[in-house]
Specification:
The complex is a heterodimer. Chain A is of the alpha+beta class. Chain A is built from three helices and three strands; from the N terminus they run H-E-E-H-E-H. Classes of the chains: A alpha+beta, B mainly alpha. Chains A and B meet through helix 1, strand 1, strand 2 and helix 2 of A and helix 4, helix 5, helix 7, helix 12 and helix 13 of B.
Chain lengths: 120, 328
């Protein structure tokens, strides 16, 4: 093969149309990353691996190359349970529950009204 | 490095004929119109899924194949610092390929199916990687201008509607900003160096100019359009707009070094639009269809890697594991 790369020249590859198909494939692991001690561990992506140890090695290469990392978690995709996206509406009423919200409780007006009444 | 949103004529036709459940389609489209992302478990039109797989897969292949011309120069980098930076960049590109294969996989096509399709020629990758890296200056130009072009494309695509693709692109753009900076550093080093260093840089720019114009795909007047892909935020900017943005950002950065582009008609008009000689689009088609200077080599190398590593993957395979589509 006509190539500028000395390493490829040494392989003496021949172009051919025949490609044996790969049919079996590795399972995936969901990867979680913790940037700093004390911070949340957050989902960052997926790696393919044959076992959890290899998944950690791959996760380190793909998600731990830059910046800070204190730890990585990997979980088999098939072991993660989630709500279906059809169930999204079950969270719709949550923002309406204002009694759970500290901003709902406003007392200053009442105090001022009370104080001005006292002065009279 | 690259996500092509160009439709084939056939696909463009099918986009307008596939019938979807009107109620679900409306909910889907209004979600996108509100600026929300689509996640893998959501209902989506058949054509949305298909075009995204094609586009993300092509992008993933481009990352993997794109590492080959640069990888060539790792053993011949001019010094240790440049060698470290180049190894890091090449590793990044392969990592980006992995992120993108996983993003495409959430849509239901396995990574192995994609790799098979790359090797049997069924799926494409960016044309720009079918040209040789003849000298070290090519590595400088690839790092600065090819990555610069890719970043224009990727920043735009990261505003798209498909969650996993956007998340992968955000990470990729962040990492590619290092590629760009080290590429610029390398270009400036050569441009401010000896006569010979300037000469190999000029030669590399001369050879990469047309492939860079080709990078963004055929002119809008020549390419098949789909309003739907725009509406669904799969395609976010036209080829001509992206090409213009690239020229606007990068041509001045080459000119200020007193290096030229091999096109006497290259200039910015008063309205902010760049003018240039129309590159040979027949060459573009020829390279896409396998006739470029390095197509055969790229696929042969990829195939060698696939076959040489097969026994390792097979030895690791656990047949009792049940495969499920990745979540996000």
């Amino acid at each position: 093969m006509n190539t500028l790369d000395p390493r490829i020249k040494r392989l003496s590859l021949e172009p051919s149309a025949e490609v044996e198909k790969t049919n079996s494939h590795l399972i995936t692991y969901e990867v979680f990353h913790q940037e700093k001690r004390g911070k949340h561990v957050t989902h960052v992506g997926v790696v393919h691996a044959s076992n959890p140890e290899m998944a950690l090695v791959m996760a380190k290469e793909v998600f731990g190359r830059r910046g800070k990392t204190t730890n990585l978690w990997v979980v088999k995709t098939s072991d993660v349970y989630t709500f279906g996206s059809d169930d999204e509406d079950m969270f719709e009423t949550t923002p309406e529950k204002t009694f759970r919200d500290p901003a709902y409780y406003k007392v200053r007006d009442k105090i001022e009204k009370f104080q001005s009444k006292q002065k009279v | 490095m690259y996500g092509s949103t160009n439709l084939s004529e056939e696909d463009a036709k099918r986009m307008n004929t596939t019938v979807e459940d009107p109620e679900k389609l409306e909910a889907f489209e209004s979600r996108i119109a509100r600026g929300e992302k689509i996640e893998p478990q959501d209902w989506m039109p058949v054509e949305y899924r298909k075009q995204l797989i094609r586009m993300i897969e092509q992008h993933a292949h481009s990352e993997i194949v794109g590492a080959l011309p640069e990888g060539t120069w790792i053993t011949r980098a001019p010094n240790f610092r440049r060698k470290l930076a180049l190894i890091a960049k090449v590793q990044d590109e392969i990592g980006h390929g992995q992120l993108l294969y996983s993003a495409a996989e959430t849509l239901g096509k396995t990574r192995e199916e994609m790799l098979n399709d790359l090797l049997n020629g069924k799926s494409k990758y960016s044309n720009v990687f079918n040209y040789p890296a003849k000298t070290w200056a090519d590595i400088a130009v690839i790092g600065f201008l090819v990555d610069g072009a890719a970043i224009v494309n990727q920043v735009i695509n990261s505003k798209g509607s498909y969650g996993p693709y956007c998340r992968a692109l955000e990470r990729i753009c962040y990492e590619e900003s290092f590629h760009l900076k080290q590429g610029h550093d390398n270009v400036v080093y050569l441009a401010t160096g000896t006569k010979h260093q300037r000469a190999i840089l000029q030669d590399a720019i001369n050879r990469w100019y047309v492939p860079l114009l080709h990078f963004f795909g055929p002119p809008d007047k020549m390419s098949a359009h789909s309003e739907k892909l725009m509406k669904w935020k799969v395609k976010l900017a036209s080829n001509d707009d992206m090409r213009n943005q690239f020229l606007d950002q990068y041509v001045p950065k080459i000119w200020e070094l007193d290096i030229t582009f091999p096109d006497p008609n290259l200039k910015k008009n008063n309205d902010g639009i760049w003018e240039f000689s129309d590159p040979d689009w027949n060459e573009f088609k020829k390279v896409i269809n396998g006739g470029g200077p390095c197509n055969a080599e790229r696929i042969a190398v990829r195939k060698f890697a696939e076959e040489a590593g097969r026994w390792v993957r097979q030895a690791l395979m656990n047949p009792t594991e049940k495969y499920v589509v990745p979540l996000a």
